């Protein structure tokens, strides 16, 4: 398998986002912020819980690990632009923007993002991933 | 509203040194929470770069909220994360932590109004050297009065 600039990263999807997973994450993190386990008002005025930022980043990390393998992520930079609410379906995606390294060790630089089921951009960022494959900078 | 000068006094604040070991059950449950695939103990989930550094320096979220004068627990938002992974964190390995607050900047957002962006970085190291460096930006929403909750 070869990886090249412009290659899309296989999409990683998840949903619906559930209050149970948020509560589990809040307990693991010992995060007292009630927006993750008590109802808050969503964009359309309904009362919903808000997903944790580390979970949203985790979906992007899951996409990268599914693509390039566990331990492949060398850097992940993200900026949060919107919330994910319970009941949402999310989709992590990305594209290879550069290949660096040499014949012994190659890295793919990628643009990554997470979007909600309504199309809203949740987070955007960049990643550097060690590629297990032969690179091809065609 | 807390004066920005007071917040800027936090720049350079060094977190107490400490350490943290990710247990099997933590990695299993956090991975479950992300709906991710379970890999070997040599690869904890990358989202531990949010949790493990803070746990290592021994601060609870509430203590960080207090340090940064959060008006309430729900007046805190994630801004940006920059996670560098020189070597994946492993289950059962104790990592030493050191870190500090890098910057504080008061800004105004269209949706959230006035907020302080607090940037802090924490490195986790073992005997082989630095394993990870997490630079996270948290947003602390501010209201005009000291006592009220932020506008919804």
Kindly describe this structure:
The complex is a heterodimer of chains A (138) and B (152). In chain A, 20% of the residues lie in helices and 41% in strands. By secondary structure, chain A is of the alpha+beta class. Chain A has a single domain, classed as Thiol Ester Dehydrase, Chain A. In chain A, the strands form 3 sheets. Chain A has a 5-stranded antiparallel beta sheet, with helices on one face. In chain A, strands 1-9 form a two-stranded parallel ribbon. Chain B has a 5-stranded antiparallel beta sheet. In chain B, strand 3 and strand 4 form a beta hairpin. Chains A and B meet through helix 1, strand 3, helix 2 and strand 5 of A and helix 2, helix 4 and strand 2 of B. Strand 5 of chain A pairs antiparallel with strand 2 of chain B, so a sheet runs across the interface.
How does the SSE layout of this entry go?
The complex is a heterodimer of chains A (138) and B (152).
Chain A: E1 2-3, E2 8-14, H1 19-29, E3 40-41, E4 47-48, H2 53-68, E5 73-80, E6 90-101, E7 106-116, E8 121-130, E9 134-135
Parallel strand pairs in A: 1-9
Antiparallel strand pairs in A: 2-6, 3-4, 5-8, 6-7, 7-8
Chain B: H1 4-8, E1 18-21, H2 24-33, H3 48-56, H4 61-67, E2 76-85, E3 94-109, E4 113-126, E5 129-141
CATH class of chain A: Alpha Beta
Helix/strand order of chain A: EEHEEHEEEEE
The string of secondary-structure elements of chain B, in order, is HEHHHEEEE
CATH superfamily of chain A: Hotdog Thioesterase
Span between termini of chain A = 14 Å
Q: What sort of overall outline of chain B do the alpha carbons produce when their principal axes are compared?
A: globular
Total count of strands of chain A: 9
In terms of DSSP E residues, the strand content of chain B is 35-45%
Strand order of the largest sheet of chain B: 1-3-4-5-2
In angstroms, what separates the terminal alpha carbons of chain B? 17 Å
Rounded average pLDDT of chain B: 90
Instruction: Find the CATH topology of chain B.
Output: Thiol Ester Dehydrase, Chain A
């Amino acid at each position: 398998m070869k990886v090249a600039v412009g290659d899309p990263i296989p999409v990683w999807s998840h949903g619906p986002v559930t209050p149970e997973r948020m509560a589990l994450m809040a307990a693991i993190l010992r995060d007292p912020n009630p927006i993750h386990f008590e109802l808050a008002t969503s964009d359309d005025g309904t009362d919903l819980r808000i997903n944790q930022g580390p979970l949203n980043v985790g979906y992007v990390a899951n996409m990268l690990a599914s693509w390039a393998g566990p331990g492949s992520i060398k850097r992940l930079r993200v900026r949060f632009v919107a919330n994910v609410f319970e009941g949402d379906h999310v989709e992590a995606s990305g594209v290879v923007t550069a290949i660096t390294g040499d014949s012994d060790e190659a890295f793919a630089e990628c643009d990554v993002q997470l979007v909600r089921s309504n199309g809203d951009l949740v987070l955007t960022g960049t990643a550097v991933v060690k590629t297990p494959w032969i690179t091809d900078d065609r | 509203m807390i004066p920005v000068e007071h917040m800027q006094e936090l720049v350079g604040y060094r977190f107490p040194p400490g350490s943290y070991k990710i247990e099997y059950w933590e990695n299993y449950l956090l991975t479950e929470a992300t709906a991710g695939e379970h890999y070997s103990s040599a690869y904890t989930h990358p989202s531990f770069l949010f949790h493990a550094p803070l746990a290592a320096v021994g601060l609870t979220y509430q203590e960080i909220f207090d340090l940064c004068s959060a008006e309430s627990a729900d007046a805190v938002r994630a801004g940006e994360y920059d996670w560098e992974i020189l070597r994946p964190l492993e289950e059962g390995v104790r990592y030493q932590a050191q870190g500090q607050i890098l910057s504080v900047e008061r800004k105004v957002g269209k949706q959230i109004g006035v907020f302080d962006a607090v940037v802090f970085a924490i490195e986790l190291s073992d005997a082989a050297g630095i394993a990870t460096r997490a630079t996270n930006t948290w947003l602390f929403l501010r209201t005009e009065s000291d006592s009220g909750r932020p506008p919804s």
